[in-house]
């Protein structure tokens, strides 16, 4: 039952926002009593923490699956972006933006974990791209990782509209890739832009 509550709450939080969804809403959607929810979660904050943990786990499992498909480095980034777009397409407001605004402590915990995970993902992608001669050999990998996650997290933290955030993220991905790409990488980038109708 606990897992079912977390799963339903996560759906509702991502669709309608962390702030606007109440324990009553979750109970109503599941046709259970609010008392049942409180048996597992002493308050809404604890439930939000569990939900963000589930989203984090799901996102990184999907990223691992995409990486395992052995796309080239540039295509891999576009596939990951596509996954995010699919995952959050039903929400109007950016989940990260809401979390930061209404639950800053939970937000801080989520961010410190995400930054570590994403740093690793971005770093592996850049190293892969250098090996494949899609990115320049002379890159300072750590600096480019920092540039990219600063861009991405700033967009999500400061953009209330989910649609606008996704649009800016794609622009950031193109910007990031162009900054690193070799001539061969630019050709691949243009191919991905056409394929993804940007």
Automatic annotation (TrEMBL):
<dbReference type="Pfam" id="PF00440">
    <property type="entry name" value="TetR_N"/>
</dbReference>
<protein>
    <submittedName>
        <fullName>TetR/AcrR family transcriptional regulator</fullName>
    </submittedName>
</protein>
<keyword id="KW-0238">DNA-binding</keyword>
<feature type="domain" description="HTH tetR-type">
    <location>
        <begin position="1"/>
        <end position="59"/>
    </location>
</feature>
<dbReference type="InterPro" id="IPR009057">
    <property type="entry name" value="Homeodomain-like_sf"/>
</dbReference>
<dbReference type="InterPro" id="IPR050624">
    <property type="entry name" value="HTH-type_Tx_Regulator"/>
</dbReference>
<dbReference type="GO" id="GO:0003677">
    <property type="term" value="F:DNA binding"/>
</dbReference>
<dbReference type="InterPro" id="IPR001647">
    <property type="entry name" value="HTH_TetR"/>
</dbReference>
<feature type="DNA-binding region" description="H-T-H motif">
    <location>
        <begin position="22"/>
        <end position="41"/>
    </location>
</feature>
């Amino acid at each position: 039952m606990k897992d079912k509550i977390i799963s339903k709450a996560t759906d509702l939080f991502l669709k309608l926002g962390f702030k606007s969804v109440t324990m009553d809403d979750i109970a109503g959607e599941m046709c259970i009593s609010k008392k049942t929810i409180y048996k597992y979660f002493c308050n809404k904050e604890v439930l939000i923490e569990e939900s963000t943990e589930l989203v984090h786990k799901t996102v990184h499992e999907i990223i691992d699956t995409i990486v395992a498909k052995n796309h080239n480095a540039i295509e891999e980034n576009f596939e990951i972006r596509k996954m995010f777009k699919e995952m959050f397409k039903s929400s109007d407001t950016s989940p990260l933006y809401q979390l930061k605004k209404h639950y800053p402590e939970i937000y801080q915990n989520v961010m410190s974990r995400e930054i570590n995970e994403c740093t690793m993902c971005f770093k592996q992608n850049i190293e892969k791209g250098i090996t494949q001669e899609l990115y320049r050999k002379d890159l300072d990998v750590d600096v480019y990782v920092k540039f990219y996650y600063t861009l991405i997290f700033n967009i999500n933290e400061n953009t209330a509209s989910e649609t606008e955030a996704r649009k800016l993220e794609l622009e950031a991905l193109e910007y990031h890739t162009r900054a690193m790409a070799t001539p061969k990488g630019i050709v691949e980038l243009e191919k991905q832009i056409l394929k993804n109708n940007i």
